[in-house]
Amino acid sequence: MKYVLVTGGVVSGLGKGVTASSIGVLLKACGLRVTSIKIDPYLNTDAGTMSPFEHGEVFVLDDGGEVDLDLGNYERFLDIKLTRDNNITTGKIYQHVIAKERKGDYLGKTVQVVPHVTDAIQDWIERVAVIPVDGEEDPADVCVIELGGTIGDIESAPFIEALGQFSYRVGPGNFCLVHVSLVPVLNVVGEQKTKPTQHSVKGLRGLGLTPDILACRSTKPLEDNVKEKLAQFCHVPLEYIFTLYDVPNIWRIPLLLKDQKAHLAISKVLNLASILNEPSLGEWTSRAELCDNLHVPVRIAVVGKYTGLSDAYLSVLKALLHASVACRKKLVVDWVPACDLEKETEKENPDAYKAAWKLLKGVDGILVPGGFGDRGVEGKILAAKYARENKIPFLGICLGMQIAVIEFARSVLSLQDANSTEFNPETKHPCIIFMPEGSKTHMGGTMRLGSRKSIFNVKDSKSAKLYENKSFVDERHRHRYEVNPDMVERLEKAGLSFAAKDETGKRMEIIELPNHPFFIGAQFHPEFKSRPGKASPLFLGLIAASCGELDTVLNPASAHQHSISNGPTNIFINGTSKKSPNGLADVRYNNGYCNGLYTR
C-alpha cells in the first residue's frame, strides 16, 4: 500500500480537500485504484452535531456516517463510495482508546498520547486503507490522506506525531507528503512572496515531517525565480514544486497537476513508475472545457437558512452544476434568505423584503434545501406556494419537501394551522411528525441516516421517469421528522401525489403535483450521490424543467422523432466525440447519462 499525505500551511481554506481529490483523480487516470481518508482534529466524534456556519455542510455516506464535506469532494471526484471510518476525528480516536482501556486491553499500563493514541491513529489508517472500495476485490493501490487544519494547530499535534511515525512504519518509497501552502502577492510590492511557505515548511520539519512535494496556491502561476527560491530554502527539488493557481472551475485542478507532471513526481517518490500509465483525462478535460464555455444561463433560487455561507449547501451547489452542465446551461444561483420573504421582514426591513421577492420572481426554478430549526420556515413555505401557484419548477429536499406538504395542506386543504411538530408541537393539524424511532435527548447519530430504499408506487410519475422507471432507488437520508401517515389519504384526495414510499409503505419518500410543470419534493438528499458525469436525476429534472426541456429528458423517444430533421448530434463519451443513438443529445446514453457532455 502506498500513502499520499496532504497537509496545509500558512492559512486555512487553501483547498486541501480539492487538492487531495485532484491527486486522486490524476492517479486514478493513470490506472491506479485510489481510496481516501480525511483526518479532522476536532473532538467531535463526527460532523453531525456541528453548525453549517461553523463547518459547512454535513455530508452523509451510504452507511449513515455524518462526515466532513471534503469526503463529498472525494466521492464526487473519484466516483467512489466511502464509509464513516474514512473520516478520522480526535473524538473517534479517544473514544476507541478509552474503550480499550475500560476493557483492560492495555494490561494495566499507563495510557498515554504516545504510544497509545498515536498507535491507534496508525492502526486506523492501515485498517481502512486496505478496505476495497465500490465492490472491488482488491484493495486500493494508493490511499490519499488529508490532514485537516493548519500545521501548528495544537489539536493536530497527536496526528502529526502519528503520521511522522507512520512514514517510518511503512518505509521509504511508500509515503509521499504533499504540502499545500500559500504564495501571496502583496499589492504594494507586486511580487510573489515565498516567506510564508518557508516558515510553514520549517514548522513542518520541526514537527518531524519532511515535505516531498509543494503545491503552492497563488492567483497566478509561480514565476521561475520564485520556484527556484522555494526549492533552495525549502529543500524540495524544483520539479517537485507545483502551482495551483486560480482557475475558472475546480475540474481544472487535476488538469493543472497533469500539465505540470505531478503524477510523475508522485510516482518517483512512491516507486510507482513500473505500473503507472499515461493519465487518461479526455472525458475530464472535455467536461472542464464545456463548463467554461457555457453561456445560456439558467437561474435557480436557493431559498435557505444559511445563504451567507455557500459551503453550507456545497453538495446542492455541485448537484445543480452537474445537472446544468448536462443540459448545456450556465448555472446562475440566486441566494434568497428564507426569512427575508416573511411578512415580519417587510415591516422591519422593507428593502431586504423587496430584494428577496425580486430575486425569487426573476428565476427559472426554485430549490428549497434541507435544514433544521424554525428560522425562515415561513419564508420557505411562501417560496413553495409561489412556485406551486405560478407553475415555477420546484424541488424540495428533506425539509424542503416537508414545507411543501405544509403549504399544500394550508392552501389546498384550508388547514391554516397545519404545521410540523418540530415548529409547533401543539398544532391541530400535524402534517409532519417526529419519527417514532428518533431520540429527543441525544442529537448525534440518532436520525434516520444513510442509504435507504424508496419504492415507486406511481409508475407514470415524473420522478419515476427521471429514475428510468426503476422499481426503487437507493438514496441517502438525514432526518428525524416525516410526513404524518394519518394525513396521507386526505392529502392524496386533494391532489398531492406520493410517488414513492419506503419498504413499509408508511413513510413518504417523494411527493409530486401531477398538474404542475415540475413540482417534486424528496425526503432523501439526492445531492449526495450526484457526480460530475452522472447528474442526480431529480436535479437534472429541475434544471431541464427550468430550461423548458423536461420532455426531452423524460421522453427520449419523442426527442428522437424531433431530431430526425435536425441531423445527428455529437456527444462526448470518455473524451471521444460520438454520435448519439437518437440523433439528439440523449441524457440517458452511456450508462444512464452521457457524462454531462452533449451538444447539438
UniProtKB/TrEMBL annotation:
Species this protein is from: Arabidopsis thaliana (Mouse-ear cress)
EC number(s) from the headed UniProt entry: 6.3.4.2
Domain Glutamine amidotransferase span(s) in chain numbering: 310-543
Sample GO molecular function, one term: ATP binding
Name this protein carries in UniProt: CTP synthase
Record key words, sorted: ATP-binding, Glutamine amidotransferase, Ligase, Nucleotide-binding, Pyrimidine biosynthesis
Enzyme class, broadest EC rank: ligase
Catalytic activity: UTP + L-glutamine + ATP + H2O = CTP + L-glutamate + ADP + phosphate + 2 H(+)
